[in-house]
Amino acid sequence: MLSAATGTPRYKPFKPFTQFVRLGYRLTHPPSMHHVARTLPYLNLSPRGDVWRLHWQGRFVTETHSWAALRQNAPEQLFVVGSGPSVREQNLAPLARTACVLVNGAVALCREGVVKQPYAVVIEDARFIQEKGDMLRCLPKGTRLCLVGSAVQALGALDPALFEHFRLYYLDGFETPYGKPRRSLEDVPPQHYRRKGEAKLSLNLQQGHFGCGTVMYAGVQLGFHLRVRQLLLVGFDMTNFNQPRFYETPENAAWCGLEKAFHSRVLPAFELAAETARELGITLQNCSHTSAVPRSILPFSPVLMPTSGN
Questions:
Q1: First to last CA, the chain
Q2: CATH class for the region spanning 66-304
C-alpha cells in the first residue's frame, strides 16, 4: 500500500509465515487474547518479578530492565524529542546537556552527534523498525530502549544481536497485558493511571502504557512515570502530516497516519496529560514554534529558539 502524498510504501508486509501464525492464533484464541498475536511468531516473554525474560526462537537471550528501578536518580528535567520538521529550525545545543528521550526517528540526532547519549529511546511502532531500523545501530551500546511487544518482535527480525546491544524496557499494554486477557481499568488501582472520557494516561509503566496515535505520548508517559519536574516536548508539530520528518527527504518519507487521529485521540490525550501535570506539579510545555496543538493545552517554551541565547 502506498502513501498518496509520496508514493512510498505505508508499511512493509510481513512474511507469509508470520501472517499465517498470527492468523492461526487469532482463530484459535478468544478476542480478549488477540493482542498477543502481535508478538508472534518468534518472541516469547516470561515474567520474573518486575522484569521479563526474553526468548527468541525458543532461546533465552536477555532480560528486560525494571521500570521501578528506573525511577531511582530520575532527572528533574526531560526533553521528549519527536520528528517534526520544526527541529531543523531550532537551536538544539541544550539537548546535549539535558536528559533526552528520543522517539522513533529522532534517533537521527545521535547519528548526527547532537545527542551523544540519550536518556532513553522509545518506539511503539513495529513499522518504524521494519523500515528505518538500521538507524538504531548508531545508538551507543547500553542505550535504554523502550519497546512495545510488536516492536520487540520487529527488532529481533531485524537483527537478534541487537537484543544484547541495548538495555531493554518492555512497554506493556495497560489494557492489553502480555500473555493475559484484555483487562478492565476497574481492575487496576486508580493511582496508576488517569482517565477522562476515552483519553487515558499511565502514571506507572510497570502497569503498562496507553497509545493515542503518536509515539510522543509514550515518551510523555515515561516522563510521568519518572515524576520529572519539567517535561519539554520537541518536534511535536502536528501541522503538515504529508511533510517529511526532519530526518527524511520527500523521496524516502514514510507514511503518517496522524491526521485522522489528531482531533479524535491526540488532542484529548494531551488535554488529559496537561491536567494531570498540573495536578502533580509537573511543568509540561511544547518547544515547537509551529505546533498545531493549542497553546491553551501545551504552553510554548522558547528554550530552543535561536534567539533564546542558548
A1: 44
A2: alpha beta
